[in-house]
Amino acid sequence: MDNNLKKLIPFTKPYKSHIIWNIIYNILYALFSTLSLITIYPLLEVLFKENEQILVKPIYTNIYDIGDYLKDSLFYYMSNLNEAYGPHYSLLLTVGLVIFTFLLKNLFNYLASFHIMHLKNGVLRDLRKTMYEKIISLPIPYYSEKRKGDVMARMLGDVNEVQNSFFSILELIVKEPLTILFAIIAMFNISLKLTLFVFIFIPISGFIISRIGKTLKAKSIKSQEERGYFISLVEESLSGLKVVKSYNAESSFKSKFNNSINRLLKLSNSIGNKNNLASPLSEFMGIVTIAILLWYGGNLVLVDKTLDGSLFLVYMVLAYNILTPAKAISKASYAVKTGLAAAERVFEVIEQEDSIPTKENAIMKTDFTDAISIQNVNFRYQDENVLKNFSIVVPKGKTIALVGQSGSGKSTIANLLTRFYDVNEGRIAIDGVDIKDMDIHSLRNLMGLVTQDSILFNDSIKNNLLIGKETANDDDIIEALKIANAWEFVKDLPNGIDTNIGDAGGKLSGGQKQRLSIARAVLKNPPIMILDEATSALDTESERLVQMALENMMKNRTSVVIAHRLSTIQNADEIIVMQKGEIAEQGTHNELMAKNGIYKKLVEMQSFE
Question: Could you tell me the pTM of the whole model?
Answer without folding.
Answer: 0.71
